[in-house]
Amino acid sequence: MLTPELDAWLYGSRVARFTARDVGRAAPRVELAWDPDAVARWGYGARVLSHLLPMDPDGAPPPARVTAWLDGLMPEGRVRDHMAMDAGVDPEDVVGFFGAYGGDTVGALQFVPVGTRPRTGTDVARPLDDADVAALLRASVARAGGQGRSQHLTSSLPGMEPKIGLVRTGEAWFKAAPDQPTTHILKVARAADSPTADLVDTEAAALDLARRVGLTSIDAHVETFDDMRCIVVSRYDRVPDEAAPGGLRRVHQEDGAQALGINTRDPERKFQHGRAIPSLAAIAQVLRDDGARPDPLLALTALNLAVGNTDAHAKNVSLLRRENGTVALAPAYDVSMHLHHDHASRVFAMDVAGERDMDALTGADLVAEGVSWGLPRRRALRVVDSTLDALRGALGEIDRAAHPGVPPEAWRTVEERTDALRASLD
């Protein structure tokens, strides 16, 4: 049985200790105790770990907040259940889970046994050929479907879609050691006969557009390993750094649901759908509270509406929390084109100026949303206008032959939506 206590390290310092209470109960209560040296390093009230969990050595945060935040680092659905069973822990035991998978999480946090330090380069990654990568991808599909546990994973990746994290060096692929940072995420394409078989193709294309607009640093392309088709996405929370162990520096981040304290054990809670939270306004306020401008969030929302990305929920918007304490909106990720499919939902994941019907939302609604955050109207208009103008230019410049899996109707839908949003600004 794994220990109910773990130390958490961030940016080379022990930041906190997480302790599970009442482990035998259905949902153990998790308590957090700040490390005094971390408080001295970053300061009282610092939010280097999370907006939800400001450092306060005199008062521990409520266990419900701690548990909700940790839940946000974990996979969703059956993937979580089966990874927990692989490790011999209860899926509800988040501390036990990270005792097995906490060496490499999303962001920069590392969990280690109490009194120890994260290992630095002591383990060696295992080289993989195409058949090996395909086997890992098949195992991730089996986990998501509630079957099979033959390929033990080394890190925790949130989300519902089958995915794995690997290390890429040049053209070679490696399975990371338990404490080694991965460089890429590979997400499995849906079956060829699925009505959304082109989802990974439109995601790679949408991220290509986002790069050209200046909203992401991610590289993405579709690749096939044996018979397993997937999108390969570079991680924005891993930065090349020769001084760091293994040549990679971890950058901390948290998603919008974590920052707002929303427990997404129920995956529907990451969507707004008329609720008070999550909301774009609440995420914008988090940015402002932490000293960052919310303008990039408005630009990202304009991009999501233009490309028809209905899945821009609170877990698909994240914030970087840098070592120096500064905060910024994370690069765009998980952006796809959905509205060229007849069966697609026409409901946006978040409300914009009180509206969530994708066919009714206008450029003027985007401006009004930005104004509701406190942006001057002229500034909000400039952000929306420049984003849509840059997107229209990117649509003309992008090499569509590099995205052969994107159907013509998808490109046409994005063009039409971009033009309509621009026209409605007038």
TrEMBL record:
<comment type="similarity">
    <text>Belongs to the HipA Ser/Thr kinase family.</text>
</comment>
<dbReference type="GO" id="GO:0004674">
    <property type="term" value="F:protein serine/threonine kinase activity"/>
</dbReference>
<feature type="domain" description="HipA-like C-terminal">
    <location>
        <begin position="155"/>
        <end position="391"/>
    </location>
</feature>
<feature type="domain" description="HipA N-terminal subdomain 1">
    <location>
        <begin position="6"/>
        <end position="111"/>
    </location>
</feature>
<keyword id="KW-0808">Transferase</keyword>
<dbReference type="InterPro" id="IPR012893">
    <property type="entry name" value="HipA-like_C"/>
</dbReference>
<protein>
    <submittedName>
        <fullName>Serine/threonine-protein kinase HipA</fullName>
    </submittedName>
</protein>
<dbReference type="Pfam" id="PF13657">
    <property type="entry name" value="Couple_hipA"/>
</dbReference>
<dbReference type="InterPro" id="IPR052028">
    <property type="entry name" value="HipA_Ser/Thr_kinase"/>
</dbReference>
<dbReference type="GO" id="GO:0005829">
    <property type="term" value="C:cytosol"/>
</dbReference>
<keyword id="KW-0418">Kinase</keyword>
<dbReference type="InterPro" id="IPR017508">
    <property type="entry name" value="HipA_N1"/>
</dbReference>
<dbReference type="Pfam" id="PF07804">
    <property type="entry name" value="HipA_C"/>
</dbReference>
